[in-house]
Amino acid sequence: MKQTLAEIISIGDEILYGQTLDTNSHWISGALDQIGIKVIRKSTVPDIEAEILTSFQEAEKRADVILITGGLGPTKDDLTKPLLAKYFGVDLVMNQDALNDIEQLFTKANRKMTDLNRMQAELPANCDKITNQLGTAPGMWFKERGKIFVSMPGVPYEMKRMMTDFIIPRLQKELVNYHVVHQMIMTIGIPESSLAEKIRDWEEALPKHLKLAYLPTKNTVKLRITASGPDRDVLKKDIHEQVDKLKPLIEKYVFGFDEGNIEYFIGKMLKEANKTVACAESCTGGFLSHLITSIPGSSAYFKGAVIAYSNEVKHNMLNVDTETLEKHGAVSEEVVIQMAKNVREKLNADVGLSISGVAGPDGGTEEKPVGLIWFGYSDKEKTIAKKYNFSKDRILNIEFGARKALDLLRINLSEK
Amino acid sequence: MKQTLAEIISIGDEILYGQTLDTNSHWISGALDQIGIKVIRKSTVPDIEAEILTSFQEAEKRADVILITGGLGPTKDDLTKPLLAKYFGVDLVMNQDALNDIEQLFTKANRKMTDLNRMQAELPANCDKITNQLGTAPGMWFKERGKIFVSMPGVPYEMKRMMTDFIIPRLQKELVNYHVVHQMIMTIGIPESSLAEKIRDWEEALPKHLKLAYLPTKNTVKLRITASGPDRDVLKKDIHEQVDKLKPLIEKYVFGFDEGNIEYFIGKMLKEANKTVACAESCTGGFLSHLITSIPGSSAYFKGAVIAYSNEVKHNMLNVDTETLEKHGAVSEEVVIQMAKNVREKLNADVGLSISGVAGPDGGTEEKPVGLIWFGYSDKEKTIAKKYNFSKDRILNIEFGARKALDLLRINLSEK
Lengths: 416, 416
Description:
Two copies of one chain form a homodimer. Chain A is built from 16 helices and 17 strands. Chain A starts with a strand and ends with a helix. Chain A is α/β, with parallel strands linked by helices. Chain A has helices at about 15, 25-35, 50-60, 80-90, 95-110, 115-120, 155-175, 190-200, 200-205, 230-250, 260-275, 285-295, 310-320, 320-330, 335-345, 395-415, and strands spanning about 5-10, 40-45, 65-70, 90-95, 120-125, 130, 140-145, 145-150, 180-190, 210-215, 220-230, 255, 275-280, 300-310, 350-355, 370-380, 385-390. In chain A, a hairpin with a 2-residue loop joins strand 7 (about 140-145) and strand 8. In chain A, the strands form four sheets. The first copy, chain A, has a six-stranded mixed β-sheet with strand order 2-1-3-8-7-6, sandwiched between helices. A five-stranded mixed β-sheet of chain A has the order 14-13-15-16-17, sandwiched between helices. In chain A, about 45% of the residues are buried. Chain A folds into three domains: about 5-175, 3-Layer(aba) Sandwich (Molybdenum Cofactor Biosythetic Enzyme, Chain A), CATH 3.40.980.10; about 180-255, 2-Layer Sandwich (Alpha-Beta Plaits), CATH 3.30.70.2860; about 260-415, CinA-like (Maf protein, Alpha-Beta Complex). Chains A and B meet through helix 2, strand 2, helix 8, strand 10 and strand 13 of A and helix 1, helix 2, strand 2, helix 3 and strand 13 of B. Strand 2 (about 40-45) of chain A pairs antiparallel with strand 2 (about 40-45) of chain B, so a sheet runs across the interface.
């Protein structure tokens, strides 16, 4: 059994100039992956006849299914439809059904149809029309020389509706069943290379039809196991067995098995433990609180925070001793301990988290360089501090620092 | 004079599976556009040897510059480096300079280097190393058969830093012959379509070699004038003339002429006015403070903030009357007035900003729907409140809301 291979072609200068971010091909990839079709190439080509035709030829050689978005508008810089007719050597003919669809759209919107809109109902003679529920450009389905070509508008919601209503079901009907199953393992606090060393033996012993990928972002590394084959239940079982073997090797770094970031996971943990948190941030300037509150429903466990950017605010709002600030400096174990404990008490939370460091680019000294960050954690039983060295980059220090604080929360909560 | 053509190749199964959205090639497109290099194709290929090699061959035929991202990690699913060596028919050799870079990174972070990391310093014999300031995988610069190949990590911040520090300057040095000059006009508080109406006559009268782009992001719209031709000084003069004509048409919406966001601009204003600010945030949960403190040197004008997510914290930390909270609710004119005034006084700042709204997705009522946000501004002379309705989307409400508060600050500061 051979897996069906697909290729996605996005047409449009605006993507190549960096003005429009192509989210269409990302969405289509995910949708095809769900039904076991493997995307082997994505291309973006300009609104130039020769480039578009070449991309059709190249794709037809490699893939079974070619999905094309863009270039279907009513203006003359839209080339996809005439080029598909040219590519297959057929004429454009008026499609009465497509014309009815367009007329209906205009009637509903109480707008007058132009000649340009009428011409949108002319389609290559060899295609099946795909109804566009949300716009004037019909989609097209071609089956030629054993390959399927599909052309869709570039407007994301029009494309998605066509995919969901028509294209996905028809692909499923026409193509042989072949399944792909993924499993995520979310880790934090360990770099990709160290993780790879820890699990090397396990990885090398993986059965052939299971593949492992390392996907690092900020200070989390997502492991993805992908299994492919004819029977979905067998694949699930195979993955499950491997995850059971993997778990004990990296237990303390794993924070979840679902696609989801550390702030989402922390939210789940706090809700389950029925605990609330409050933060005292200095160098991260609100980013820790922002991560926590980016999760819907976070008001159930987040009390609030004090962003104590100046020493004055650390003293006035968080009761940090002036003496301690003078003796040890704002970036110190003593200060984050007071910040974590006091913010917990003042905001009446179960847990207090604190951060104070040198974000940079200025303000570093030999003893306390840019990238040095102290963290505090406090609950009713204990208050602890940890320090880490991050980078020279201000934004990275802010982002890594805030996530490190969440990891500290995770570790201390899971110890209970 | 021929314009330089570029092609971007992104390598990685995770993009083709729809798990990672490829923002790298979008960012690179924009960066190349800035220096007058035209992207004629973007491709994403899987972690499969034959597919990657084919993409190199195809790109070399079409483009002068080929920029490759991804596949440089330390693990064995990362194929780019050995394949580049194979493509150019050279060996991988230990690059002492790259090894020093990596060792330094590990020393600084106080971490132990693994053999896998050491192997990352082995590079194809024919390339120039590109320093990776933020990670262990060096970049590579090849010049072969009159074409430039550049290989970069897929981690966005590592790639961006390499582009900014090394690749863009070197491309400019090697490829100068055709100039592109851009001028930004940053606006806030007016939608793209209204802006377009206000400046339509001016836009239609623009000389042929000047082009205008509308680049909306969140609640700012960036206008970009691009001039291209052989003489940089002439282009600058032409743009200057047009900006002088444009200014009076949209004066009150323009906040700057440099690439720079509203938070950067606000920082400049506050420093020039020698004023400090403090914030009281509810629904934006720290994002306003994060925007302000994302600017280096913001400690000169940002005192700090109280993130008062619960009513309890609004009362305890910001002295908002319990009675007012009960009578008018947390999302009300009365509450944001007290929050702005009290945070200014308690944190001893010149200006207080406050935000309280319904971020969603839950918590909306008929009277106070999701997307309703109240803003407060307070200085020694006055305290005012404004309300706006944003969207149904939590993240957009947080981001638009925080930037709206900065716009309120801008308007009130510029009235002085």
